[in-house]
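Q: Entry one of two.
A:
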Amino acid sequence: MEARLIGSREIAPGVRHFEFGALGVERLEFVPGQFTSFVDMIDGKEITRAYSMASAPSGSNRFELCLNRVEHGHLSPRLFDMKPGDRIGMREPLGMFVLRQAPRDSIFVATGTGIAPFRSMLQAHLKASSPAFTLLFGVRYESHLLYREEFEEMARTHAHFRFWPTLTRPDAGWKGRQGRVQAHLMEATGERRDVDFYLCGLKEMVDEVRGLLKGQGFDRKQILYEKYD
């Protein structure tokens, strides 16, 4: 299978939002939260990298990704250099980082481009009849609050959705939460222990949050996660 780039745009310094079409299928099937893998030959070697879907299934062959440019990475410079119409090898979506069925009130914890699967999940599942969701999103700088306007609009139109951005390096004008996501976990849960947690981001954050939650009495089955280096 191949993917053809439809277009891309910068959404933060060093971060781009991509829209692709999967060739050879009329409809790309996947579950929100899953990932696809891109495959290419780089310096004579086959390189494969997995990227979380950043959009809900569209009923067509189109899908979206959110990627950092890794300067010395094998594949991201190639993707950032792609022009509309360029193609790259891809594999069918996979992964178990998806909402449990039936879903219940949940807290999503993301850092950086770990926001991608949560955008997919919220686009697909947030509605008047859905459980309550809280999105705790940590980045260094306000300029890196990816998809901020979309999440703020979701919070305005759905009273049972909370968008909580937090910055570790805020400027003087920032009035929101500060510090790492770990500092705001208990504010998100209150006294409740009947919620599920979904974590996505760098390994250090995911491992630390898991440890904190287990120490506060959450069962490991309530904590789903996907981490990357």
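Q: Entry two of two.
A:
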Amino acid sequence: MLDEAGLGSAARWYVDGFSRRSGIKVNLNLSPKLGRMHRDVEVALFRAVQEGLTNVHRHSGCSVVDVSLSLNTKQLRLEIKDDGRGIPQKRLRSLIEGAAAAGVGLAGMRERMRELGGSLEIRSDRAGTTVVISIPVERTSIDSQQNGESGRGISVA
């Protein structure tokens, strides 16, 4: 679905299924400016949504999670925010420092974002956890993407 319909449709499909399976309400907010992106960016963001929601389900104890994907002229920003119990401070420090014990999912997410020139930030307290992913926007044409050139940004019409 991701290849055929793009990130927006794939994210809606995944979030709907996640919400039904987990019983956690998910508010999905996608920027209306969001179009098709370079395949690497779409895959990385879709995987981040999957991993983020998996972590929410496993660890947060939340009832609601907000997932938003916004776009401006400088960056693409994915935010996953839950209203759960938060991450204990010692564990949070390990996650922020990228310790090996932090888990394969977050490490993979962090590495995918680095490959795209982006970043991953984790904030948490007793009111919940927020994961913020930022990827710089580099304007690339559909032709350069199809010709296998190394453009990693989104295609903005």
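A: Comment on entry two: Residues 139-157 have pLDDT under 50 and may be disordered. The chain has six helices and five strands.
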